TrEMBL record:
This is DNA internalization-related competence protein ComEC/Rec2. It is a multi-pass membrane protein. InterPro entries: ComA-like_MBL (IPR035681), ComEC_N (IPR004477), Competence_ComEC/Rec2 (IPR004797), Competence_DNA_uptake (IPR052159), DUF4131 (IPR025405), Metallo-B-lactamas (IPR001279), RibonucZ/Hydroxyglut_hydro (IPR036866). Pfam families: Competence, DUF4131, Lactamase_B. The chain crosses the membrane at residues 6-36, 48-65, 251-270, 282-300, 330-347, 353-370, 382-399, 411-434, 466-487. NCBIfam families: ComEC_N-term (TIGR00360), ComEC_Rec2 (TIGR00361). Signal peptide: none annotated. It is found in: Cell membrane. Residues 526-711 form the Metallo-beta-lactamase domain. Keywords: Cell membrane, Membrane, Transmembrane, Transmembrane helix. It comes from Zhongshania marina. It comes from the Bacteria. The keyword Transferase does not apply.
């Protein structure tokens, strides 16, 4: 039984991570051949093959259906008019200003007239019933269940393609969204219906809203809501950072631990009552009520992947217990995984799926068939096993590790499991029976959470988090080492497996050779951030944008990239000029990363670190790599033309970082007779028509040029005319919108592309009319814009 279920799981995984979806004809042919083989052979091998093919075809058909629901790529960034049905209670979010976010279903979608129509083709048939995520930038958001008609701007799901950055586009697709966007002119929308239709989601949101009002009276009511209902909207960015740095984020996600407590309570209460009733099988009553309790609690949590896994495994275990059947724990485990994948074939793209199933697998592998050594020893060993077992996946997902997470979890998990959660559940049950007792119960939980958060904050400040650079080899070695360490006691010399594991964790991050430099253009959307590494130093040129929502590219892209490269301090930060897309995220970066020297092109607000201004012929050298600012002698420029122009020479090749300079500055530099030749050019002003004059391009003569621009940006960067100018001198052109982050190696052997982070990794990113991601864009002039 396990073999065919395992084959089915492999089939779904194969499609989930496939770069291209198999065609309908190929799926049909595979199904036909597998069916014929099964009818002819009727062996265990043929059943395994048939299970694999059935699951493979099911996941493939599901993939085709999901891709068909995506907003067409050429319409991304366009404006539409649609009927918008609000699916949930709008969630208030705070950035520089307050706004709201909600899920919606769109009907009667059509291209907007009189609005932006650069990409919107009214002749293109648009599919209705798309689920989208919308922002509302105004007060008085719509209510759940309401239907309104208005103008919206939509974008296809897309995320930053940078080292260790969260891939928002992948998350949106895996969670069923077809697009994201915002409501244009909220004050002009027309309400078509004010009735809230009944649905499971509306019922859940209503229950959560009623309890949320009661929890607001407590200091940590937002964390209590997260523990009770998986409503994490009230947890702010600073608190999430504390949880992340101490490895306790899992406490805020309703998982098997929470379900197990509810299940045990339901079973004990119902079986106790059943024993008092004659002619009633208390075992079945207890199991049934326990499952109902767990099901109701999982419904409040929105049936997340961890709750699905816990529910299925609990149901299998309870059924086996009641029927006095011996069912292997691994059979229950594999059954749970298969059922979750059948419900959602894209679940493997959620970190919660991987981490939750990996944690259970580690516990089963380590403890199955072994005797328990007592409660305290069991808690200690289980935390050690889970922490150890999750290291490879934490590496692959780009999550940080903290040396304090193990001792912190040894205290935090029992505190939350044995004290906080029971007190919260008591309050929940007593609310309708004895409100004063419920209040006392919740107040006690609030006090315990206060103690916990003080301890976590102290631990987060005391011990920094680090990210282990991931590779397939490191993942393989770490996984094998951990499996060996989890073998039963008595296996000879198993602790020698600590050596490769510690070598992976403690080995220094790769660095350029002496005299060489790595130049990494980070994908920060419509903005610029370039990391330059020498053998012992690191320089960051610009930080990328921030937004009124509070989101910024430092937290989302730059800081994760620095940590993934093993950089916890910058020798120099250069902010080319004060424009938001270059300097907006600087305050957020300076809060987290130590900077030795700050160099500015223009004065910056909200930055208190002592600084100097970039000036002509300011030169220095790091590890035999030369740096020099090339600034016009006249000076006095502002805005884009104040940009610091930085030249880097390493191994006989040069790199030119030009900020947002326009043709005026280009002409001044040429008139002064500057040597602008460079093998690599970061294109001025993102490839705008106002820069990259033919004379400037001829003087630089770059072998490689990079345009740092956002996907489908409304500026049209890079301009087609500019691309043609670079094509005329045979430059190879790259765009962060298409290729993601790009790293170049500048060495004695010359300049070469070292690594590309973006491109067509998954099947929903792959459209045949677009070229392969490894192709540069100038010679073909078929960028996806």
């Amino acid at each position: 039984m396990l073999s065919w279920m395992t084959a089915a799981i492999v089939g779904i995984f194969a499609i989930a991570f496939a770069p291209i979806l198999p065609s309908y004809s190929l799926l049909l042919a595979m199904l036909g051949l597998a069916s014929i083989f099964q009818l002819h052979s009727r062996s265990s091998r043929s059943r395994v093959i048939l299970a694999f093919v059935l699951a493979f075809c099911y996941a493939g058909l599901y993939g085709h259906w999901r891709v068909a629901l995506l907003l067409p790529a050429h319409l991304s960034g366009s404006d539409f008019v649609a009927n918008i049905k609000v699916l949930n209670i709008p969630e208030e979010r705070l950035g520089f200003s307050r706004y709201y976010r909600f899920d919606a279903i769109l009907t009667e979608l059509s291209c907007a007239e009189g609005l932006q129509d650069n990409y919107c083709d009214s002749s293109q048939p648009l599919l209705d019933r798309r689920r989208v995520q919308l922002n509302w930038y105004a007060d008085s958001p719509p209510q759940q269940g309401q239907v309104l008609k208005g103008a919206i701007r939509l974008r296809r799901p897309h995320g930053y393609q940078s080292p260790a950055a969260f891939d928002y586009g992948r998350w949106m697709f895996a969670n069923g969204y077809s697009a994201s966007g915002y409501v244009l002119h909220p004050e002009q929308v027309v309400y078509l219906s004010h009735r809230s239709g009944f649905s499971f989601n509306s019922l859940r949101q209503g229950v959560i809203a009623s309890f949320r009002d009661k929890l607001t009276h407590y200091q940590h009511g937002h964390i209590m809501a997260a523990l009770l209902f998986a409503d994490r909207s009230g947890i702010d960015r600073q608190q999430w950072q504390v949880f992340s740095r101490t490895g306790t984020s899992h406490l805020m996600a309703i998982s098997g631990m929470h379900i197990g407590i509810v299940l045990a309570w339901g079973f004990l209460i119902a079986r106790g009552i059943g024993l008092l009733i004659p002619r009633v099988n208390s075992l079945f009553v207890g199991a049934g009520v326990a499952l109902v309790f767990a099901l109701a609690y999982s419904a409040l949590a929105g049936f997340s992947v961890p709750t699905q896994r816990a529910l299925i495994m609990a149901a299998v275990a309870l059924l086996a217990f009641c029927l006095r059947r011996n069912i292997s724990v691994w059979q229950a485990y594999v059954t749970a995984m298969l059922l979750v994948l059948l419900v959602d074939p894209l679940a493997p793209h959620r970190a919660g799926f991987s981490l939750s199933f990996a944690a259970v697998a580690a516990l089963l592998f380590a403890f199955q068939g072994r005797r328990s050594g007592g409660l305290l020893r069991g808690i200690f060993q289980s935390q050690w096993v889970v922490l150890l077992g999750l290291i490879p996946l934490l590496m692959m997902w780009g999550y940080g590790l903290s040396p304090i997470s193990f001792p912190v979890n040894l205290i935090a998990i029992p505190l939350v499991t044995l004290l906080v959660l029971p007190l919260l559940f008591c309050g929940l049950l007593l609310l309708g029976l004895a409100p004063p007792l419920a209040e006392h119960s919740w107040r006690a939980a609030d006090c315990l959470l206060e103690v916990l958060l003080h301890g976590l904050t102290w631990a987060a400040e005391l011990f920094p988090q680090f990210i282990i650079p991931s590779s397939y080899l490191a993942f393989f070695l770490a996984s094998v080492s951990i499996l060996v360490l989890m073998l039963p006691r008595g296996v000879p010399a198993k602790y020698l497996a600590l050596i490769p594991l510690l070598a992976i964790m403690l080995s220094p991050s790769p660095r350029p050779k002496h005299g060489s430099a790595w130049v990494t253009v980070l994908d920060v959307g419509q903005g610029l951030a370039v990391l330059v590494q020498t053998h012992s130093k690191a320089l960051l040129y610009d930080v990328g944008p921030d937004f009124s929502s509070g989101f910024n590219s430092a937290d989302a892209v730059v800081i994760p990239a620095l940590r993934s490269f093993g950089i916890d301090e910058l020798a120099m930060l250069v902010i080319s000029h004060a424009d938001k897309d270059h300097a907006g995220a600087a305050p957020a970066l300076l809060k987290e990363i130590k900077v030795g020297q700050l160099v500015l092109g223009e004065a910056l607000e909200r930055v208190e670190l002592p600084s100097i201004y970039c000036k002509d012929s300011y030169r220095w050298e790091w590890d035999a790599v030369q740096f020099e600012f090339l600034m016009p002698e006249k000076g006095g420029h502002g805005g884009n033309n104040a940009s610091c122009v930085l030249r880097i020479r390493a191994g006989g090749s040069s790199v030119l970082l030009s900020g947002d300079i326009e043709t005026d500055i280009e002409r001044e530099l040429l008139a002064e007779g500057r040597d602008l030749r460079a093998a690599l050019l970061i294109a001025p002003h993102h490839g705008s028509n106002t820069s990259s004059s033919a004379e400037f391009i001829q003087a630089v003569s770059p072998q490689q040029v990079v345009f740092s621009a956002g996907m489908n940006n409304h500026y049209g960067h890079p301009a087609l005319k500019v691309l043609r100018r670079y094509d005329n001198i045979a430059s190879r052109c790259w765009s962060t919108a298409k290729h993601g982050s790009i790293q170049f190696n500048v060495a004695a052997e010359g300049l070469r592309v070292e690594k590309i982070w973006g491109g067509r990794r998954y099947y929903w990113q792959n459209e045949r009319k677009f070229s392969n991601y490894a192709d540069e864009i100038c010679s073909n002039l078929h960028s996806e814009r």
